[in-house]
Design goal:
The structure is a homotetramer. By secondary structure, chain A is α/β, with parallel strands linked by helices. Chain A has 2 domains: 3-149 and 327-340, NAD(P)-binding Rossmann-like Domain (Rossmann fold, 3-Layer(aba) Sandwich); 150-322, Dihydrodipicolinate Reductase, domain 2 (2-Layer Sandwich), CATH 3.30.360. Chain A is built from 12 helices and 14 strands. In chain A, a hairpin with a 2-residue loop joins strand 13 and strand 14. Chain A is globular, with a radius of gyration of 19 Å. Chain A binds chain C through residues 51, 53, 192-193, 239, 291-292, 295, and chain C through 51, 53, 192-193, 239, 291-292, 295. Chains A, B, C, D: Residues 4-131 form the Semialdehyde dehydrogenase NAD-binding domain.
C-alpha cells in the first residue's frame, strides 16, 4: 500500500515538479497540499499557476490546498516533501518534525546544521543515521532530512566517484538554468542575450555543502571533507539543466580512462528514482549539453564528458536536471530512502 | 592624409566589422576589398550579406570586390587588414607580405610562429620589434602582425595588470557569444535553450597565446611566460560579448583592493582605438554582463568585476566585445600601432 | 507481422524524427536507410549527427546507410518514408514509385500535382483514392502520397472543423520554430533576440495547400476549395512548435461556443498516430504556447485557443509540433492510412 | 535656455529611457524626479536599478528622488514626463494638471478620454488643439497629453501614409518584445523557447487608439475614424522592437509601388526627435527585423517592408523600437511639440 504523503509549498515551481513526480509514483499517494495564505481553501487547480510540461493530474487538481500548519495535515500522512521558501522552511519545518512528521526537504534552511542529514542517497546514504542524533537532541518524533542545492547535486556524484584518488582542490564554474530561481526568479529582460556571473549565496552552497556530503559520519558526529572548493556561478538563458566545468586536483594521479571508469561504474541504488547508470559519461568532447542531456535517466542521471588532463589534474564537465535530480526528484529519492530505512 | 588600406576577406562577419570601424576612421581610407571567388567582380553591396547593426557605408557599398591576390590590390595601399579563414590566411598572407604589404591579421594561422608578433598594443607593444627578426629571416618588404583570439584578448589584459604579483596558475572558464563562430558558425538548433561545453581548439588558444603575449622579447628572441593556464570554453546563447570566470594564483599575495587598483590603473595607449580606462572594474558582484557591458569604450574596453579571495588566490570575471575588441577592433588597433611606429 | 519500411534521407532532421517514431512502432520495422553520397556505406551512427532528444536506437545505429536508389532497397520493403530535400525528392521519388515502392513523402515537390494525394488523414482520407488515377496515368506499381507543409498542417484541421459554416476568407500569421528549417537552416546570429518576417515560399504553401486539402474529390478529379487565404510567415527563436494567429470569415455566423464545439468534437481516426481528441481547445486566452503545448497527444494533436469574435468573423490561435505532426509524424500517419487501405 | 522638466515614475523601465533621452537633450533640463514611496529621499542612483544600455548620467544619479506629488516639484518646472503605472497615473496626473503642470504622459489611463489629445506628432499634431477644450472643461492651468501604446505607434504611421486610399479594414498580428511589459513583466521561464499569443488589453488598445489617432478634430469635437481594426498580439523572446504583420483593405486600389511611395514620402516634422525619413521602407522581403532595424533613426523611425498584394488588398510588415518610439521617445517628442506650440 502506498504511503500517504503531503507537499509543503505545493504551488511553486519545485512543488509542481514534486506533484508531477509523486502522482504516478507507486510508493506514494498525495494526500495533503499546503501553500501560503492566499491559496488556502482553493482547489489546487485554482491555486497553482501550473507550468510544468505535462497536464496537471486530475485528482490532484481538485484537492483543497490548506495552510502550511501541522494541524491541517491528516494524521495518517507520514511523510512530507517540503519546497518552501527557505525563510518559511526555517520557521515551520521544526514544528512539523515535532508533531511527528518526517520531512524530506529541498529548502535551503538548516542544510548545514550538525544534526541534519544532507543526503544524496547514492553518495552518502549512511548519513541518514544522523537522524538518531537529531531525535536525541531535539526530542522529535518526526525527522528532518535535506537534499543539497541543485548546483551542488550536479557535481558531487562525480567527486564521489573520484574520491578514492584523494581530492584536494576543486574549481567549478557553473552555467545554470533560469528554472533554478523559480518561476519569477529571473526576468526575461535580465537574461535574453545575456549571462549573469553571480548567483547570490550559490557559490557558498557549492563550497560548503559538497564538503558535508563527502564527509564521514562515525555514528556520533559528522566530519566534513577537507578538500578545498572554489565556485563561480553563472546564470545563462537555458530553461532547465545546470552545466558545470570542473577542475579536480587529486593526491594520487588519475588518468582519463581511470576517471571515466570510476564515474561509469559508480553504483546506483535499488531505489525507484535512482537511475542505472547513475553517471553517464560521454566520449564526445562537446557533451553533455543542457537541452540534449537533461532528461537522461528521466532527469535523475548525472551526465559527464569532456574529460581531459590539464597541467593541474583533471578537467571535465557535468550536468543534471536542476528541478528533477537537483530539487524535486532529489527530495523524492530521499523519501524513498527514508521509506526503505523504516522511518515512515 | 589618411593611409589607404584594404580588407582581405571583407564579406565575412569580421570583415563587416572591419568596414564598420574603418569607414569613419580618420587615419585610414578603405581602398581595396577582397573576398573569395564567388564575390569577385561584384559590388560590395552585392557580395556581402550585410548584418552589422549599422547601415552599410554608401561609398564602400559601391566598391568592387576583387580576388584575394596581391596583384589585385593597388600599389598605394600600404596596410591590409586580414580576416580570412585561417587556412586561406596561411596560404595567401605570406604572399602579400612578400609583395611588400603590411598585414594586420585576425586570422589564427601563424599566431604562434616564433617570428610573428602577436600583439595587444596596451599589453606588449614592444613585441612589434620582432618584425625586424621577421624581415631578416623571411626577406619580406612587408610584415605580418597578428592579434590573438577573441577569448584570449578578453582575459589577458587583466593578467597583465596582475603580472607584478607573479602569476603562477590560471583557471579560466569562458561563456562565449555565438558571433565568435561567424555568421553561420552556430546553428540556432544547436544553441537555443542550450550551452555547448567545448569549442574546438579554443581552449588551446587561451592556454598558449596568453603565455606568448605575456612573454619577454629581448631584441632577438621571444620567451613565453611560464605561468600555467587551463581553459574550459563554453558557447552560450548570447549574440556578442565573451564573459570569462578567472581564477589566478600568484607568487605574492594580492588583496582584492590591490587587484582592483592594478586593473583600474593599467594604462591605455595614446592610440585612437585604445579606450581610457582600458579596464573598467565593477563593484557590483553580478557585473560585467554581456548585453549590458559589451559596448563599454565603444566595444574596446575590458570589463571586470566580482573580485574575491578564494582558498587558492583571486577569483574574478571579465568581459570584452568579441568582434570589436576581440577581432576587428584588435586588428584596427594593431594597424594604428603599426602606423605610429612607421611601418606604413 | 510488422511491415518492413525504409527511410529516404534518413540522416536529416526529419529523417531522425522518422526513426525516433518508427523504431518503437508496432506496425513498422525499419529495414532500409538511405542518404546522400557522403553517408553511403557508413553505419547510421557514423552517418547521422543525431540531435533528437532521445538516444539513437541501438539496432538502427548499426544499420548500414545506402545510396538513395531503388536498387539498394531490399525487395521485401514495401513502404518508404521520404524526407529528402525537395529537389532530390523530385528527381528520385518517381523512380521508386515506378519500381513498385509506395512512398509516403514529406518533401515539398509534387505536393500540388493533380494526381498526387496531399493528405492529412483526419481531414481528407478520401483523397487517397486519387492513387487510382495516379497509377492509371503514370503506369506505376508503387504510389506517391504527400503530407502538407508543417505550417499548413497546423491550421487546416481547425478550418476543416469550421468548414460547415462556409469559409470564405482566411488571414493567417505564423510564428514558426527554427527546427522547421532543418538543423542548419537558421543560424543563431540570425534569430537570437530577433524575428524574421518572411520565410521563402512558405506563405504560398499555406495559401495553396490548404485549398487542395479542403477540396472535393469526385472519383476522377480533385477540385480545390474556393476560400481565399492570405498568409504572413515569421520565424521566431523557438525550437519546436509553430504557433498561428488565424482570422476566419464564414458565410454563416458562428459563435465562439459553436466554433469551440466544432473543433473539440472534430473526429480523430482509428489509426495509431491519430490522437483523441485531435484538436485540444484551451479556455485560457494565452494558450496554446509552443513550449507548453507542443507535446500534446505525443506531438500529434492540434492545440487551439483564444477564440473570439472580431468585426470580421472569428479569431483564434492554433499550434502543432512542426517536426512531429507537421513532418515526420504526418508521414508516419499517412503510412498507417496506406497500410489500413491495403496499399502495402 | 533649456526648459526645466521632471519625470514622474523615474525609476521604471520607461522612466530610465526618459532620462537617457532627456539628459543630452538641448531643449530640456532634468530638474525633478519622482517615484513611489520606497524611493523617496534616496539619490536616483540608489533608487533606480539602472538597466539601460548606457551608463547612468552622473548629474542625474546624484539627484534626490521625491514623492509623486505636485508639492514636491519645483515651481519653475513647466513640463512633466509621466511613465507612471496606469492606476497611479489615473490617480495623480489630474492633480498635477490642476496645479498648472503640463504633462506629457505615456501611461495608458485617460488615453481614450474625449478631451485628452492622443498624439503622434507626425500623424495628428492638430489634435493638440483639443487642449483648449480640455482646459475649458476641466478648468486646468496645466494640460494632459498622451502618446499611444507602443504597439499602436508601430503601425499607425503606416496607416496614416495610406489613409488617402480610404482604409476600411485592418488585420494586425504583433510580435512584441519583452521590454514592453517592464523589467519584471515577463519572466524568463515564460518566454525562453516560447511565445505567448495574448497580451491582456493590448489588442483593444490597437483597435481603439488607432481609430482615435486617425480621427478628425473640428475644433470642438474629435470624431474617430470608421475603419475596422482586428488585432492579435503575441509576446516573443526579443528584448526590444515590436514587429507587426499588417493587412489593409482600402476603398481605392493601391499598388505596391504607390504604397511604398506613400510611406517613404510621408513627412517627418521639424522637431528634434522626429527622424527623416519617418518611415524607412525595405525592399528585402525579410526586413524589417527587430535586432537589425530597431535603432533606425535613433530608435524613432518606423521600418516597413515586405509589401505585397493579397486577394484582399495590401500586406506588409512594420517595426518600431517599443521603448523609444513606442514609449519614452514618444513622450519626449510630444514634449517638443508642446514646447513649439507655446504650451510651456
Amino acid at each position: 500500500m502506498a504511503a500517504r504523503v503531503g507537499v509543503l509549498g505545493a504551488t511553486g515551481a519545485v512543488g509542481q515538479r514534486l506533484i508531477q513526480l509523486l502522482d504516478p509514483h507507486p510508493e506514494f499517494e498525495i494526500a495533503a497540499l499546503t501553500a501560503s495564505e492566499s491559496s488556502e481553501g482553493k482547489t489546487y487547480r485554482q491555486a497553482a499557476k501550473w507550468r510544468v510540461d505535462s497536464p496537471i493530474p486530475d485528482d490532484v487538481a481538485e484537492m483543497t490546498v490548506t495552510a502550511t500548519d501541522p494541524d491541517e495535515v491528516p494524521d495518517d500522512v507520514g511523510l512530507l516533501f517540503s519546497s518552501l521558501p527557505s525563510s518559511v522552511g526555517a520557521a515551520v519545518e521544526p514544528g512539523f518534525c515535532e508533531a511527528g512528521y518526517v520531512v524530506s526537504s529541498n529548502s535551503s534552511n538548516a542544510r548545514m546544521a550538525d544534526d541534519v542529514p544532507l543526503v544524496i542517497p547514492e553518495v552518502n546514504a549512511d548519513h541518514l543515521d544522523l537522524l538518531e542524533v537529531q531525535r536525541d537532541e531535539r526530542g522529535w518524533d518526526g525527522a528532518l532530512v535535506k537534499n543539497p542545492n541543485c548546483s551542488t547535486i550536479t557535481f558531487v556524484p562525480t567527486l564521489a566517484a573520484l574520491a578514492e584518488y584523494g581530492i584536494e582542490k576543486v574549481h567549478v564554474a557553473t552555467l545554470q538554468a533560469v528554472s533554478g530561481a523559480g518561476y519569477d526568479g529571473v526576468s526575461s529582460m535580465e537574461i535574453i542575450d545575456n549571462a549573469i556571473p553571480h548567483i547570490g549565496s550559490e557559490e557558498d552552497k557549492l563550497e560548503t555543502e559538497s564538503r558535508k556530503l563527502l564527509g564521514e559520519f562515525d555514528g556520533a558526529e559528522l566530519t566534513h571533507d577537507e578538500m578545498s572548493v572554489s565556485a563561480s556561478c553563472n546564470r545563462i538563458p537555458t530553461i532547465d539543466g545546470h552545466l558545470e566545468n570542473v577542475w579536480v586536483e587529486t593526491e594520487e594521479d588519475v588518468s582519463i580512462a581511470e576517471a571515466a571508469g570510476a564515474m561509469e561504474s559508480y553504483p546506483s541504488l535499488d531505489l525507484r528514482s535512482s537511475p542505472d547508470p547513475l553517471i553517464h559519461v560521454f566520449d564526445a568532447p562537446d557533451r553533455p549539453q543542457p537541452r540534449m542531456d537533461r532528461t537522461l535517466g528521466d532527469g535523475m542521471a548525472i551526465a559527464a564528458g569532456g574529460l581531459q588532463e590539464t597541467p593541474f589534474g583533471l578537467q571535465y564537465n557535468c550536468l543534471a536536471h536542476n528541478t528533477i535530480r537537483g530539487a524535486a526528484g532529489a527530495s523524492v529519492l530521499n523519501g524513498e530512502l527514508l521509506l526503505e530505512n523504516g522511518y515512515i
